[in-house]
Amino acid sequence: MLILAVITAVAATVLFANDQRNLKTFSLFLGIRLPVPATSVATVPTSSDTAKISKPISRWPWPGFTTTPGLIEANPTPADMCSRQAAGAQEIPAFAESEQRGWECSMLRDGLGANRSASLFLQARGSMHEPADNIRVKFNLASGKLDGELATQALAFFRLATAMPRDPALSEVLAKMLTTQTDFYFYAGYQGLTFRQELGDPGRYNLIGTDRTSKIPGDHPRLWPTEQKMDMPTQATKTARIPRLLTLPAVND
After folding, report:
1. Helix, strand, coil percentages for the chain (3-state, nearest 5)
2. Is the Cα dihedral 165, 96, 109, 200 positive or negative?
3. Contacts of 230 (CB under 8 A, 6+ apart)
4. Distance of alpha carbon 62 from its chain centroid, rounded?
5. What is the superkingdom listed in this entry's lineage (predicted)?
6. Beta-carbon neighbour count of residue 223 at 10 Å?
7. CB contact at 8 A, 241 and 228
């Protein structure tokens, strides 16, 4: 009995030490057949099976781009943009460019407004082969009012020069602010607009557009009248000028 116990202990030790291989050897020695696990054979898909697999849906171009003509259009070159500003019998736009100073487009439009005595001076500047990063529109009202015609022409010039997306609602709000002749500051993303009356001349206004990083982060365009408030902190006046923030959709008549 002692000898049998020793043999069993040695066999168990060897089996545990060498796992599956020694287990098979020991079972063959004792004449015991161990069950053989079934092996699965991988099947290779045929061409007919592959044809049944649906192809992924193409995500480009987006459906809206193929069904809505003119939704995406290439930005015009600065020279092309400037030539497009020609309007009837008005002054032909002047365009100049250089590697050092970039490009500039400027023109004068007169005989505008209700009394046909107002004028617009339009000027845009930018780096070579890039949209404008600085725009100036000078309104000379000649004792008249800044009407919808002047506002529309100024915004159309700004939109084309900066490759600004067409947004009728935004254009309507900005035109309304211009016709009130109230100083304001507007920004959306990297685009900033400042509208102010010239000091000492109630008939002249400047609309200046700049391409720069906004100081205040936000998802929607922001619009501030530039009315100064005495109780505002100095730090706040450098950025916003009033303590009340208006989003563009909230502006009413």
Report:
1. 30, 25, 45
2. positive
3. none
4. 17
5. Bacteria
6. 20
7. yes
Tokens of 238: 């450098």
Check: pTM over 0.85? Answer yes or no: no
Q: How far apart are alpha carbons 203 and 200 in whole angstroms?
A: 9
Identity of the amino acid at 186: F
Structure tokens at 175: 């035109």
**Dihedrals φ, ψ of 178, to 5°?**
-65, -40
Q: Where are the beta strands (DSSP E) in the chain?
A: 94-98, 102-112, 118-126, 134-140, 184-188, 191-197, 204-211, 222-225, 246-247
CA 127 centroid distance within chain? 20
Transcribe 154-176 into DSSP letters: HHHHHHHHTTPPP-HHHHHHHHH
Given strand 191-197, what is the order of strands in its sheet?
A: 94-98, 102-112, 118-126, 134-140, 204-211, 191-197, 184-188, 222-225, 246-247
pLDDT by residue for the chain (253 residues), tens only, comes to 667 666 776 666 655 555 566 667 766 766 677 676 666 666 666 666 666 666 655 555 555 545 555 555 567 788 888 888 887 777 888 999 888 888 999 999 888 877 788 889 999 998 888 878 889 999 999 877 898 889 998 988 888 887 666 778 888 888 899 999 889 888 766 778 899 998 888 889 999 988 765 444 444 555 556 554 444 444 443 433 333 333 333 344 4
Q: How far apart are CA 148 and CA 175, in angstroms?
A: 7
